[in-house]
Amino acid sequence: MSNIFFDLSFHAAVSSFLQNSPDVLSESGKVSGSFAAPLAETAVLKALDVDSNYLLPTNSAILSAIQSESLLDKGNGRDVDITGTAAAGVNVLAGKQGVFTVGSGGFFSMDVLSDGGAYQGQIGVFSLTGMEDMKLDAKEFAKEAAQRAIGGNGQGYLLFDDATQGVRFAGGVADGTDNYEGATTVSFRPGEKVALILVPNGELRDVARGRMGGDKAPMFSIAAANKKGLEQFAKVSTNTFGWEDISCKSRSCDQDFNDLIIKVSGATTEVKDLTAISQHTGWLQSALGQQLTTFGTQSNAVLTWDQAALAAIKAEKTPPPVASRNLAIVSSAVFDAVNGLNELYESYKVENKVGVEGSTEAAAIQAAYETLVTLFPKQKATFDALLATSLSTLPSNNSAVKAGLDFGKSVAQELLAARAQDGSTQVVAYTVSNEVGAWQPTSAVTSPLLPQWGGVTPFALETGSQFRPAAPPALTSAAYATAFNLTKDLGAANSSTRTADQTQIANFWADGAGTYTPPGHWNDIAAQLLGSRNASLVESAHTMGMLNIALADAAIACWDAKYTYNTWRPVTAIQQAGQDGNAATTADPNWKPLLTTPPFPEFTSGHSTFSGAAATILTSLIGDNVSFTTNSNSLPGVTRTYTGFQQAADEAGLSRIYGGIHFMPANLEGLNCGRQLGSFVATNIMQRLT
Asked: DSSP state, 406?
C-alpha cells in the first residue's frame, strides 16, 4: 500500500460514507447499523488496523474510499501515515509520556493490585530499542510490541495473564486473590526505554498475528501509541497506575481508569495524573481506593525492614561492629530469600535447591522478621507489629504467599546457623600496655571495645587481615608530627582554626551510641536512594545485601588493624607528647577533642573503613556522580548534599580529624582498606547471572 495521509478535516466525508454503509465494525467488534460522527475516525482506523484477511466487505469499501482523492487532505491538519513509516530521522518516542526508563539495577517489576473489569486480557512489557522510528499508532508498531512481549528474550516479557493469575487486593468487580503470585520481575539493560502493552480481552499473540480488532485492540502506556492518541493509562498514586481497558472514545467507557491497577518498580515514567484527565475519580475515596493509593506510597519490604533494623540498633545503642554484623545477617538472608525465588544472581549462601515457587515479598518479610527477632529479642513486640502490618497487604489463604513465608523462614534459619560460631562472642584477653604510643583508656571505660572482632569470620573476605594496611608512621617521624599537629589544631574542642562547616561535618558524621551508627548511616543513604529511584524488590535486596556484607567485613578488617597496631588516641598522644621523642610535637595536658573519644585503638579509622567500603559498593551498583542529600541522627534537622558516594566517604573520613579523635594516616589507610575490600566484595559474590 502506498503512503496515505489523512487529517481531521475529512470527518464529515467519512461520517457520510459510514451512514450509507450500515454493516461496519463497532467499537466492541460487533456489527452496528450506524455511527455517530465522533466515532467515525475510530471506525476507519479500526478498519485500517485489522488484517485484510479479517475485513468485512464494507471495511474494504472504507479502505477504497479513504484512498480516493476526495477523502485526502495532505496540506494541513494532523497527518497520520497508515503504513507505519515515520519521517526519516525522527525519534517519535522523544518526550513521550508513558515511556519507562529502567533503573540502574536493570529490572522492571510489575504488581497487579486490583482488577475492576470483566475482561480477561494480558499485559506485557517490551523494549523500545529499534522501534524509535516507527509510527506509534500504526499496526506494525503494535505487532512488533506484542511479538517482543511474548518473546521473553530480553526484548520483552509477558507480565500478567488475567485468565490464570490473581491480584493483590480483593474488592474489584472481577478480581480474585487466590491465584495471586506476587510481582513479576524481568531483566532489561539499565537505562533502557520500555513500555507496557495491554490486550484487554485476549492474548498478546493475537496482536502479534495481526488480529487486533474489537476488544483485542491493544492499548499502551504511551498515549501516542493508542488510537487517536487516547490516554488509557493514568497515574493513580506514587508509582501506581490505572488502565482503562475500553477505548475512551467508546460510549461504554466509564473513564474511571480502574479496570486494572498496577504498581511498577525498577523503572520510572511520567504520565498524567488521573485527576487531571478524568472527572470519574470517586472510587479513590472508597475503602479499596484508599488501600491502593496508600500502598503506592509505601517503601518496598526490603527497605521497610531495613529501617526496622536501624531503629533497633538505635534503640539498643548497638556498637558499630555488632550493628554491621546484624545488618549483614538480615540483608544476606533477605537477599537469598528473594533471589532464591527469582534466581537472577548467584546466591550468597542458601540456594533454592528444591525449586520452591512463591511470593518474593512474603519471603523477604519472613526472612527479615526471623533474623531480627533472633538478633534483637528485646524488640520482638515491635517486629511482631510490623510483621502483621506487612502481611496485611498480601492476600490471606494464598498458596504463593504461604510458600514465600516458609521459604523466607528456612533461609533465615540457615543463615543464622551459619553465623552462630563465627567468633563474634569469643572472649579475648586484653592487657593495657604501658608502652609509649600504645592505647590507653580515655574515659571510665578501662577495657577496649570488642578486641576479638578482627578474628570474626568474614562474610566475603578470606581473612580479616586480607587488606591489612602497613603500620602507621613512627612516633619520631616527620609524617607523624604533621598528622599530630593537624589534629591538634583542627580537632580541639576550642579550636579557632576549624570552620563552622568543619564543625558541622564532625557532628553530622559522629554517629555515636544511640544513632544508626556509621554502617547504619550508609544503610540509610542507600535506602533513601533506592526509594527515590523506585528500585524493585530484587534490586533493593541485592544492593542492601552487598552493602551490608561489605560493611560487616569493613568492621572485621578495621578491628584487625586496630588491635594489631594498638595505637593511642589523639587525646592521649597530645597530652603526653613529651614522651614521644619527636621534637616537632608539643604536649598540651589540657587539650580535649571536639567529639567524645571511642574506647578502642586509633589506627585505622572505623568511619573511614566503613565509608570507603560503602562508597565503593554503591558506586559499583548505582553509578558515579550520583547526587544525593542525607540527614543525620547525630545532628537532627541538618542535611548535607553530595555529588557522589566517594565525596561523602572522603568527608566522613575527614570528620574524625575535625572531631579530634583520629590522625590523618588512620583516615587515609581506612579509606584505602575499605575501598579495596569493597572492590573485592563487588566482584566476587552475588554476581548477576547471564
From this structure: H
639 against 3, higher pLDDT: 639
CA distance 32 to 27: 9
Whether the pLDDT of residue 379 is over 60: the answer is: yes
Residue 123 phi, psi dihedral angles, 5° rounding: -120, 135
Residue pair 92/131 in contact by the 8 Å Cβ criterion: no
Q: CB pairs under 8 A, 24+ apart, for 476-480?
A: 476/580, 476/581, 476/582, 477/582, 478/584, 479/665, 480/580, 480/582, 480/585, 480/663
> Residue 210 carries which side chain, given as an amino acid letter?
G
In SS3 terms, 117-162 reads as CCCCCEEEEEECCCCCCECCCCHHHHHHHHHHHHHCCCCEEEEEEC
CB contact at 8 A, 221 and 125: no
Is 628:621 a contact under the CB 8 Å cutoff?
A: no
Give which of 99, 92, 87, 72 is closest to 8, Cα–Cα. 72
- The CA R_g of the chain, rounded to the nearest whole Å, is 31
For 566, the enclosing helix (H) or strand (E) is: none
User: 3-state SS string over 450-491?
Assistant: CCCHHHCCCCCCCCCCCCCCCCCCCCCCHHHHHHHHHHHHHC
Assign 111 to helix, strand or coil.
strand
Q: Say what the pTM is.
A: 0.85
306-357 pLDDT per residue, tens: 999 999 999 999 999 999 999 999 999 999 999 999 999 999 999 988 788 9
List Cα–Cα distances, 356 to 348, 551, 650, in angstroms: 17, 31, 44
Which pLDDT score is estimated for 258?
83
Question: Pairing state of beta strands 24-25 and 31-32?
Answer: antiparallel
Q: Is residue 527 within 8 Å of 622, Cβ to Cβ?
A: no
- Which grid cell sits at 157? 516479557
In our burial notation (b when 16+ CB lie closer than 10 A, e otherwise), range 68-88 reads eeebbbeeeeeebebebebee
Task: Walk across the sheet containing 233-237 and list its strands.
Answer: 184-187, 107-115, 260-265, 240-243, 233-237
Backbone phi, then psi, for 99, in 5-degree steps?
-85, 125
**Omega within 30 of 0 (cis) for the link into 604:** yes
pLDDT band at 264 (very low <50, low <70, confident <90, very high): very high
Most confident of 177-181, 393-397, 587-591: 587-591
Residues 6 or more apart in contact with residue 119 via CB below 8 angstroms: 162, 174, 200, 201, 215, 245, 259
Type of residue at 98: G
Q: Is the pLDDT of residue 86 over 50?
A: no
What b/e readout covers 111-140, taking b as 16+ CB neighbours within 10 angstroms? bbbbbbbebbbbbbbbbbeebeebbbbbbe
Three-state secondary-structure class, residue 190: coil
- The region of weakest confidence among 211-215, 559-563, 586-590, 671-675 is 211-215
690 vs 683: CA distance, rounded Å: 15
**pLDDT for the residue numbered 175:** 54
